[in-house]
């Protein structure tokens, strides 16, 4: 039995007739850019997120960039971002002309450390981007009041957290907006690039919509310079089909996580990340920590179990950010994570038997290592 890290083709097989039909309709109607399918998905996704407005864009990176531009973040501003995330969180800040300022993370779940956030806020801080890493929400109930006291905008990076909740409340209850990616491997994935921003602020939504469509008010009536980052009709149609299944898929991910939690606790030299009691975790990834991560991952591979590392280099230590001169001591928790984390197979179609097999192999590794 080979257990892949993720499995997009079995999901397609289960939805094929519906997806094929949806794509055919978009092509027949030539509704390629924005248009009725994109608007329909925007409405459905806003409702799913319990938000008033949804603006579809080209990808998740642009969602962050368009949100920052919509809020007026630009040159001279600092934006606080966690040290452990995908590069796009910091990249979007630079794209807007602002400076990313890194914040260390909570070693128990990998999200932004609130005490370090407080320490990094300066006169130049304009916004904060909490990342709901691996599907575990950042501590919004602590971050939001801290950000507001300091006059910061809050742009959530929810690229890994479709449907996550904080204290039973949807992410839309917090901050200025939440940015989503529909990259194929995300919990809700398109068949190409797509992204969206959801917000309760009508003025912000309008500004973001125009910015992402050449600053356009009407076809050739451009109020300001924007960019071209719109939702593709084919992607929107695929996403509408898939959105109906997202709740079930999230339940399945949670069931897999429950198997891992139960079967993998109490192994010496091996740690599970901890879910906070208030966190409605959606398990984009299931991440564990151990000292000799490479040896464990090799052993898993030899026994037919794929694994991944998210992420092997924390953002401040990447070559791309060398210019800031950060050392490992600046972000000890993010550094400890990059050296020890391993992601186990996680997707809705992973059967209980396969999840149990993953656990058996992990346990076998530690039994042999004793
Ligand atoms: C995937 C991801 C993004 C970027 O989304 P794209 O659609 O790939 O541009 C941003 N932030 C995080 C945390 C992500 O995982």
UniProtKB/TrEMBL annotation:
The keyword Metal-binding appears for this protein: no
GO molecular function: pyridoxal phosphate binding; transaminase activity
Catalytic residues (positions): 186 (proton acceptor)
Post-translational modification N6-(pyridoxal phosphate)lysine, affected residues: 186
Listed InterPro entries: DegT/StrS_aminotransferase (IPR000653), PyrdxlP-dep_Trfase (IPR015424), PyrdxlP-dep_Trfase_major (IPR015421), PyrdxlP-dep_Trfase_small (IPR015422)
Entry protein name: DegT/DnrJ/EryC1/StrS aminotransferase
Family: Belongs to the DegT/DnrJ/EryC1 family.
Chain segments annotated as coiled-coil in the UniProt record: none
Keywords from the UniProt entry: Aminotransferase, Pyridoxal phosphate, Transferase
GO BP field: polysaccharide biosynthetic process
